[in-house]
Amino acid sequence: MKKIVVITGAGTGVGYQVSLSLLEGNNEIHVVAIGRRSEKLNTLKSAHPGRVSVVAVDIATEEGRNYIVTELSSFPKIDYLIHAAATIKPLVKIKDLSLQGWRHAIQTNVESPLFLTQLLLHKCDHSRVLFFSSETPVKAVIGASTYCISKAGLQLVYESFKAEVPSEKAVFAMISPGLVDTPMQEEIRQTDPVVLPAATELSLLYRENKLLPVSIVSGFVRWVLLDVSDEEFSSAIWNIYDTSHQSRWM
């Protein structure tokens, strides 16, 4: 029986590349690709006939999450749940932050992984759930307050599930993928450095080819998800820059 992988944010960036890596590396995996960009989701489906189910939906809404549950009704079990979806917006100074911008970021980055996990727990049985952090530890970045606050909140979501859910139902992990060359990084570089001073440094790293390729990051994610033991999987927040484990997956 194929292992079922449910992954949000599968239409772009790290989520898309992780989906490809899982599909190309293991014929016994079926990916449920969730995202707002149906074109790239369907590209995955066309490249791997019979091994990809597409759910084009906005996970930031309650209606979207309920739709996902309905679409997954034919799968009796979920083996892996990966929360790769996130938004970097709004990129503004905290004094200019609007309630609308705040709510959209929190709904996408915190509410969505929390309540989608909650809704799918009944399909978990010795399953693995993976959340994405930004950096370890999460700290304030001028001009990106909402993103930083949401990722700090997501860490507590991860820790709360880890504390409350029995390991025989699911084990939980969080991963810090580092500075990755993705569309999200492009958004950051295009932001006025007066608003987001970090844009200057990240633009320099990009020009010097020092951002991590998504292929490297997806290999790291795949290793954490599939190859380590349950105990190790949930033992700490996985940092791609940690040299203690790089020889095991690079």
UniProtKB/TrEMBL annotation:
GO MF annotation list: oxidoreductase activity
Keyword Oxidoreductase recorded: yes
Record keywords, A-Z: Oxidoreductase
Pfam family, one: adh_short
InterPro entries per the UniProt record, alphabetical: NAD(P)-bd_dom_sf, SDR_fam
Cross-referenced Gene3D superfamilies: NAD(P)-binding Rossmann-like Domain
Source taxon at top rank: Bacteria
Family label: Belongs to the short-chain dehydrogenases/reductases (SDR) family.
Full protein name: SDR family NAD(P)-dependent oxidoreductase
